[in-house]
């Protein structure tokens, strides 16, 4: 460990990268224009690491997650798993999706109401032809905290609580013995009293099984409680990233500062100006400048970077474990 590295940064730097996005771009046609949903993203998830991807609705985080899962093909750039580029033929994708599993945010919508818990969890093992199906299902339910598992085999989703349904969804992912979970707003639909239980479960799975996870969320409190590192996304690009405690206790990008300001303990609320982001009309210069409170307050002008904020694009952030941000104003005080 170097003199300037924190223990968290050193641990992140020494982890083997398992899943990675390299200069990823994903475009969609939208009303005769191209929407740049993901517009140049580098992101790495190490073995046994939990990374939180945070941002407003529409910033591109779900599209990025779907692309990492192989559900969307990038317009350019590469998804790499275990050091190798992702192949999109059906056989390769089937093998990949056994290793990298999705956990959806709405267990009610993702579970078939006509299927029992057993059938829901057994679906993946059947598709992949795994032996000892009943043992696989029982083990997955047990790891997800539904014990004794046999008690849940013949139950239907409507007979379960919200937390139990989410555990069934997690069990369905665990049944394939994956190495990475991609969890899209995993506790957004749950009562506050249950959220802590699901977060504790995910941390236990990491400790017991060595699982890695990408947790997609708009909830900075969730990121604080579960993640090792956080990546903040705005208008298709990561604008700040680093160890979660460093980024969330001392955010440097104005957008991250605005997101943090809505938390109850924040001393000052930041009200963003301008229109919400439109991925078909990405502005020149810093993509956040039209809503930036630092620019609007005149502080960027005083620092002599206002013109650069409006006209000079920022470099795409690399996938590194140390704290970094894409901001002309913050760059004045590294």
Automatic annotation (TrEMBL):
GO terms for molecular function: ATP binding; ATP hydrolysis activity. Residues 19-260 form the ABC transporter domain. Keywords: ATP-binding, Nucleotide-binding, Transport. GO terms for biological process: peptide transport; transmembrane transport. SUPFAM superfamilies: P-loop containing nucleoside triphosphate hydrolases (SSF52540). Belongs to the ABC transporter superfamily. This is Peptide/nickel transport system ATP-binding protein.
